[in-house]
Amino acid sequence: MIRKKSINDVDVRGKRVFCRVDFNVPQEGGQITDDTRIRAALPTVRKLSEDGAQVILASHLGRPKGKVNEEMRMTAVGQRLSELLGREVTTLRKSVGPEVEQAVGGMKNGDVILLENVRFHEGEEKNDPGLAKQFAALADLYVNDAFGAAHRAHASTAGIADHLPAVSGLLMEKELDVLGKALADPERPFTAIIGGAKVKDKIGVIDFLLEKVDHLLLGGGLSYTFSRAQGHDTGNSLVEEDKVDLARSFIEKAKEKGVELHLPVDAVVASEFSADAETKVVSIDSIPAGWMGLDIGPQTAEEYADVIGRSKTILWNGPMGVFEMDAFADGTRKVAEASAETDGYTIIGGGDSAAAVEKFGLSEQMDHISTGGGASLEFMEGKDLPGVSALDDK
Ligand SMILES: Nc1ncnc2c1ncn2[C@@H]1O[C@H](COP(=O)(O)OP(=O)(O)OP(=O)(O)O)[C@@H](O)[C@H]1O
Ligand SMILES: O=C(O)[C@H](O)COP(=O)(O)O
After folding, report:
1. Which residues, in sequence order, are CB contacts of 147 under 8 Å at separation 6+?
2. pTM recorded for the entire structure
């Protein structure tokens, strides 16, 4: 288990704290469409402020590639944060330099400032030591609460920790506790559900989880490469020809490790990739030529729901089908419902699975929904996250 210091282990009163958060939220026309990540950071921001720190928040937003981009300013985020916190947050138009130094110099204990998008500087993604030093010079303590960006070795997520005492925020601590416990000491049966589009993106996680789980349920686009490995015709379904051998080796590895690998036994197939395509349910070994599998079938969904219901720990990453289209959402919905109903502890690994659970109105019934997409995936691959490694050990 990862043992890192957190804000509970340090005295912050009267200190200037550079707190990296992940406020990379989706926006449309300048409006925030999902503020989950801002809400998730509130306990840390509140605690720091209430404990008398001067709180300097920093985040990236989008991928501005080292240049100022008017559409990626932190303005709307700062407004939403003020509303949610119920106190004024000053949003600056720079993240380093004289304007920032002046604003920071005038802060009182409990004040909260939000810096401009740190990715407006080229040095951020390059983990430039000069930029990291400039960030560090603003503060006495570094807090990283940006679990969603912990897989990035950037100036504000990693480099800065070379210059300041560095601890985790409450969100970071919780994410590491929950995901860490599931992987290190899960209550069993431990079931992982892996879906999503491609095998290529999930190789690491499937390989790692085969060492850990009792059941592995596969669905989504990636499952058709496994169907092919089983010798079935897959019609026009998404298949990565160059990963068929790998899929076969995973089937073998599951046998060696005593993992029950569950593959779809039926599929919802469509005449084309479209919301109003003609559809039918077929057995997995009878996908007709010219048709494509876009969801797991009802029999598969029932089997998966049954395994989930019998599990004590459930870890889910990636949808079971093209859940964005109603015609192909049932498999993902059924798995989401079973995950909501089970007595087991359910962890949703961020990204599209979190979006699916939200769409079905089941978020509240899950035990933990990670705020990290890429970060939680890398964690579930057993990789070290640079934003975590950089923090001080307990
Ligand atoms: N059978 C299928 N054929 C084609 N696409 C599919 C199929 N099943 C699911 N998908 C698509 O896969 C996409 C999600 O996969 P992807 O790997 O990008 O996300 P993810 O697994 O949730 O990862 P992240 O957590 O990083 O977002 C969804 O948009 C979904 O429509
Ligand atoms: O949205 C995310 O997954 C994180 O905020 C990281 O963003 P990035 O993929 O642009 O680094």
Report:
1. 22, 171, 172, 175, 176, 370, 371, 372, 375, 376, 387
2. 0.94
